[in-house]
Specification:
Elements: E1 2-6, E2 15-19, E3 29-38, H1 41-47, E4 64-72, E5 84-88, E6 97-101, E7 105-107, H2 114-117, H3 121-134, E8 142-145, H4 151-162, E9 166-171, H5 174-182, E10 187-190, H6 196-199, E11 204-209, H7 216-222, E12 223-231, H8 244-249, E13 253-256, H9 264-277, H10 279-283, E14 291-296, H11 300-309, E15 315-319
């Protein structure tokens, strides 16, 4: 089969489309013939040599995919050859075929194309596990989403609105803020022109943050009493200052989590939650994947340049 291989750590030009050995399903795994994968910021870090895959995972890029099951290993439950699926991966999505534990495989939702389904696993599992499982967002509460025009942000806006929440967002341009409002956000801030902490002070029950250290003080200021901050990214640094006095006064909490290094069983629980709670909303048309562009997988370098430029809204797909 062919896959994208990193020739050496570096820029997008180090991504090479070449022949690699075919994956075979171990016990508890299926092999998926990939229809689409998607570019995530973690892929850029891995390409640069800053984010190695977990032990035992494929060193091929790609944290999600959609496609058709072509092989089934021993001990797999509820999946068969020919099933149209999408999957959360620890690696391997930038390829013609990928092996994945069956627990991380979900049926492709109805109402969208199989390629579009490739835009969903990483963002859906991230939003469901952090906003709903960890932060326990409830109907009538307010969610603040940083990076509202990102893949995670566009899904979080739609899902929170479907569950009856008020949604605030930050984004990097007036155009991106408007797109967030079009998706259902109630208010938005262009963070290049306005301080989100002043605009949204004391309004958020839950904050979903991709920035990290630089936003830590402002995030605490936006929380209501009993508010919950969930940090899922470090684009703004890893070390920040936390005012414990404010945190105590608000009886608030701060948590941080990732997906890639979780045990398979934990990922399986998240995937089942996504399939049971988000897929019906997609099938009903209440949520749609936001796809900025579809790029042939062999041209993954161009997709990486597109993500690094930061002008995209939603996901960038790699299609076969």
């Amino acid at each position: 089969m062919r896959a994208i291989v990193i020739s050496e750590p570096g820029g997008p030009e180090v991504l090479v489309w070449q022949e690699v050995p075919d994956p075979r399903p171990a016990a508890g795994e299926v092999v998926i013939d990939v229809a689409a994968s998607a570019v995530n910021r973690a892929d850029l870090l891995q390409r640069q040599g800053h984010y190695p895959p977990p032990r035992g995972a494929s060193d091929i890029l790609g944290l999600e995919c959609s496609g058709v099951i072509s092989e089934v290993g021993e001990g797999v439950e509820g999946l068969s050859v020919g099933d149209k699926v999408c999957a959360l991966l620890a690696g391997g999505g930038y390829a013609e075929r990928v092996a994945v534990p069956w627990q991380q495989v979900m049926p492709a939702p109805d109402g969208i194309s199989l390629a579009e389904a490739g835009a969903l696993p990483e963002v859906s599992c991230t939003v469901w596990s952090n906003v709903f499982m960890t932060a326990r967002l409830r109907k009538g509460e307010t969610l603040l989403v940083h990076g509202g025009a990102s893949g995670i942000g566009t899904l979080a806006i739609q899902l929170a609105k479907a569950y009856g929440s008020r949604v605030l967002v930050t984004a990097g341009s007036a155009e991106k803020v408007q797109r967030c409002l079009d998706l259902g956000a109630d208010e938005g801030v262009n963070y290049r022109e306005e301080d989100f902490a002043e605009r949204f002070a004391g309004q958020a029950d839950v904050v979903l943050d991709i920035v990290g250290a630089r936003y830590l003080p402002g995030n605490i200021d936006t929380l209501k009493t009993g508010g919950r901050l969930v940090v899922i990214g470090m684009q703004g640094g890893t070390v920040g200052e936390l005012d414990l006095g404010k945190l105590l006064a608000k009886r608030a909490s701060v948590s941080a989590s990732g997906l890639r290094n979780r045990p398979v069983d934990e990922k399986g629980v998240i995937c089942r939650g996504v399939a049971n709670n988000i897929w019906p909303l997609i099938s009903a048309g209440a949520i749609r994947p936001v796809v900025h562009a579809e790029v042939p997988m062999a041209n993954a370098a161009e997709a990486h340049r597109m993500l690094e430029a930061g002008q995209h809204i939603g996901k960038i797909l790699l299609t076969r």
